[in-house]
Each structure stands twice: as structure tokens, then as C-alpha cells.
# Entry
Amino acid sequence: MVEALVPAAQSRTGLPLRGLRRRRGVLMTLVVLIAVVAAAVLPQVISPHDPYTQDLSRRLTPPVFIRGGSWMHVLGTDALGRDMLSRVIYGARVSLMVATIAVIVSGTIGVVLGLLAGYFGGPLDEIVMRATEVQLAFPFILTAVALVSVLGASLRNIVIVLGVTGWTTYARVVRGISLSLKEREFVEAARAIGCSHTRILRRYLFPNIIGTVTVLGTFAFAAFIIAESGLSYLGLGVQPPTPSWGVMLADGYIYLRIAWWVTVFPGLVLMLTALSINVLGDWVRDLLDPRLRNIG
# Structure
């Protein structure tokens, strides 16, 4: 009886992708994300030049569609003569790698603490909730800047900081769901037949939070990409000459009047990537929520 109830909850993650053809906005975001992922995974294949190669004789070359541009550098070059298209492509690898690891770390910490706090309650619940309240009292970006300043600016440290500071949302949401689920009949029945706490958490509670955690992770992914770029822009993240969208924004803002492409192209790609992930997150939320499944 108990076992029969869980597959129904787990089936939420396998819902058919109905209506996707009618969601043109979602299809467009998928195209953008596929292109960004391809750039991150296969930059050596897609990139026309080495992103580190400098050629001062070609510095601040305009894009191909502007007078003076060249097909050799489709998006132009920066102040050191480096190809902008190549650096934007390689910058996708840094942003996606940082965001992916940060989501995994923060999601794991938040889900584990949220499940344990909600299911067991008591002192553990108090400690976890007070810790989240203390951390949420400080703005996320301010906390990240302070920690990176202390630990030092590097790719490893920015991943650690984003992962450790991003767990609170997961913990609070998962705790709330766990408080509700532990009083449900199928959990009570599992206790009655002698299931251990570990089995109840793994087999009956965790499958019911996968959909919510997936949606949270999607939105967190976009937030981490923007946070990484912001920290790199401030000089607290990825360090030059490593290609990063935030670093390119920082390097190009002083040339904005005479060479706008140095700043605009990485900023445009950053905006489209974050926007696409957020749109995809909205769609995933609608897909996993039975109350919204038939809307749109």
C-alpha cells in the first residue's frame, strides 16, 4: 500500500513535454542555451582564434558589420587585439562551470539540511533555521564580496563562496515541504511497518521534493552566472587573462565611447543566457505544477 503511493509522486519528474511546440519563447531559449552549452563544452572547435593571442596591430578592430571591420574578427577585437568572438565563447565555459558546481554544492547542502530539519525538528530545526536567518540578514552579493575578499580572488574560491552562501533558499523551502509530508498518511504507514528514518527520507520524502528543487536550481543557476560575472567585474572573481564575461565587461567599459563592442557583446550574451535560463525555469515550474500544467 505504501510502496504504491510513491511512484505517483515520482512520476512528476517524467511528465510529457506537451505543448512545447506552442511555447515559442521556450523554444527560443532552448536554442540559446544549446548554443551556450555547445560553446562551453567545445570551445576549441567553435572558436575561430585563440582567446589569449594578442595582436596590437589589430587592437579595437570593429565588428564585421561596421566600416573597417573584418571577417577575420567577426565581433571585433579588444584593446589588446584579442578576438572578441573567441573570448565570448571561452567565457561561457567559465560561467557555466562556476554556476553548475555552485548549484550542486548549495543544493546538496540545502536539501540535506532542509530534509533533516523538517523531518526531525527539535534542536536541529532551530539551529538550521537560525543559521538561515542570520545569513539571509545580509545581502547575498555583499556576503559573497566579503568572503571572496577574505579568501582571495580565484576561480576555486568563487565557486566555494557561491556554493556555501546559496544553500539557504533550498533549506527553507525543503524544510517547509518536509514538515507537511511527514504528517501524511503514507509516511505514517511507513513508520507503522518499521521503516527506518533513512529509508523514509530517501524513499518517501526526497522523491516528493525533486520537482521543487529542480525549479529552485534552475533559477539559482542564472543567479550564480550573474553573481560570478559581477564578482569578476569587481576583480574578485576570475582573474585576467582568463576569458570571463565579467572580466570582459570590466576591461571594456573605459572604451565604451570609442569601442562599444568590447563591452556590449559579452554583456548581451550574459543577459540572453540569464534570461533564457529564467524563462526555462518558469516553464519547468509550470510543467511540474499540476495546477499550472494546462495553462498557456
About this structure: Confidence is low (pLDDT under 50) at residues 1-16. The radius of gyration is 23 Å. The domain at 30-288 is CATH 1.10.3720.10 (MetI-like fold).
